Amino acid sequence: MAKENNFKVEFKFQHHLRGFHRHEAAESPRSCSLDMLLRRLRAIEAKQDDKFATIMDAVGEFGTFQRRLVALTFIPNILSAFFLFADIFVFTPQKPYCNTSWILAVGPNLSESEQQLNLTLPRAPNGSFLTCLMYLPVDWDLDSIIHFGLNRTDSCQDGWIYPEVKKRSLINEFDLVCGKEPNPEIVRNMYLAGLLTGSFLFGFITDKLGRHPSILLSLLGLIIFGFGTAFVNSFHQYLFFRFGVSQAAVGYAISSASLITEWLVGMHRAHAIILGHCFFAMGVIFLTGLAYSLPHWRLLFLVGGAPVFPLISYIWILPESPRWLMMKGKLKEAKQVLCYAAGVNKKTIPLSLLDKLQLPGKKVTTASILDFYSNRHLRKVTLVLCSMWFAIGCNYYMLSLRMRELGVNTHFAQVIPGMMEVPARLCCVFLLEQLKRKRSLILTFLQGALTCFLSLLLPAGKDGHRLRWPHCLTTELKSPLVLIIVLGEFSLAATVTVFYIYTSELLPTVLRATGLGLLTLVWAAGGISSLIVVNQNIAILPVFLCCISAFVALFFCFKLPETQDQPIPDSLEHLPPERRTMSEDMSSEDMLCDDVTEEVARNTIFNATMTNMDQDSLSNLSLQSGEEEIDKQED
Asked: What CA–CA distance (Å, rounded) separates 500 from 516?
């Protein structure tokens, strides 16, 4: 009897359980729609959490204040490009010979081109003058010198003469000839060393002291090390000043990008960074025109660097980032800056919105460079960005070195890519509107990597080692190769612009400048790697480096989240796992409920929850009644 009663109880329980599962199965479509509503609600709440974006609606998304802020970045961008690439035009090749004016004291009527050189300079077996040697002076008369000739040679004693020089350059200013020639790698390495140290230092300074002090410090560096280059007294001083100016230029790029990113919202942010990069390309064109027209390298720095002095006024007219002020707990200063911006835009911020700037919990958000390792999401994003920046640096420098090896005219090699970079960066506006951040980045970098790979695959010379061009191949392939390289630089210029926007939006405000500094350091490391690989005289190494770095970068790039139309993070607490999958959660099915407002979504979820609770209570009541019925039968 007891076994029979146990069997009845178990049968009743399974019956109710099967009924409950059938009810759940019938409600599965509604559960799916509720999941979509939940994801939609999370997206709405994430946008509402961006208090700054809400306040900017009241300030004016792109009013007079923002337009003035963007315009203030134009002149420094032009000057940064001017100072960074000035090295190309101050080391023009020279054909000197030793100064042998001592013989004019013996024969003042000697002509310089015919008699003086024939008597005082030795000749090579092919009949040309040995420009680094001279005959030592003797106490003979002119007839004896002509009759017997001079035999004792030595290096130049009284300097050099440059008969074919039309412009004054560093070569003839400091006599960098005959064993004193500057190694191009030393100049290039000093430039890259400045980028490495400047990216690290200014990234830390910008996040620690603020965007405004960092910009002022970088502009001071442009004045001292950029304009001051015109007054150096030795080649070593010149190298030191180039080291300093590259630090200042990269510091301005990091701090200004952080300021623009944190003041503007949406596509206005992207358009501002694109315009800034366009003016950077125009700075290269400006430099080329001045270098072609001015006769002295010191005049180049004096005339081209003069516009840096009005930038001193930025002390009073350049604003601080309110996002950075909020993260540092300086809420009063943040409100003052926002109210000033609203006043310039002729807007008024409601007090209720300003009160929302109060930070929950601790008022000061602290972060350090160690968070790039300790924070899982930030570590993942940083590693992907590093691989991408390294690949861009390798491919860009490889194309630049390839152009130089072709022997293209220096002015042509700078003007044409500079002119091409302006439309390349403007094309990013269309790409970002149609393809968003991630797809635009993948498309532009893939095209640039393919053109770089194609340029490296073409014949490398008869010795099969370094990228040298035989004369027979130069005449036939030079023009197509130049076209391929220019197209590659076109694509990579667009890649750099898109990636700068993408990187600025992925990194949180508290570590944005530090992250940009670290990534710029990785980009410089990619350039140094390409220089090292090319100098190994093995043709396959450049191909291998560019292909592997590009493949790894493209593979990991797919793992990055999309940031377009998403609020940018301010602190590490704004980087939960849910945020990085937000764009993935908002799939095509979720788009069906885009027109659902927050109130409707909340009411729908509440009603569904109450319905489920009622159904659960009814199920429990039916189960309890069944148990009571079984108990009565047992009695």
From this structure: 9
CATH number of 374-569: 1.20.1250.20
CA 341/CA 69 separation, integer angstroms:
10
Look at the domain 58-94+168-364 and name its fold: Growth Hormone; Chain: A; (1.20.1250)
One-letter amino acid of 320: E
pTM of the model: 0.77
Q: What is the DSSP string of 257-314?
A: HHHHHHH--HHHHHHHHHHHHHHHHHHHHHHHHHHHH-SBHHHHHHHHHGGGGGGGGH
Does 374-569 match 58-94+168-364 at the fold level? yes
Assess contact for 575 and 507: CB atoms under 8 A.
no
- DSSP per-residue letters across 173-188: HTT--TT-PPPHHHHH
Where are the domains positioned within the chain? 2-48+597-634, 58-94+168-364, 97-161, 374-569
Q: Three-state SS across 200-263?
A: HHHHHHHHHHCHHHHHHHHHHHHHHHHHHHHHCCCHHHHHHHHHHHHHHHHHHHHHHHHHHHHH
Q: What are phi and psi of 97, to 5 degrees?
A: -145, 165
For the stretch 527-546, pLDDT in tens is 888 888 887 777 788 888 88
SS3 133: strand
Q: What is the pLDDT of residues 288-311, one digit of tens each?
A: 888 888 888 899 999 988 999 999
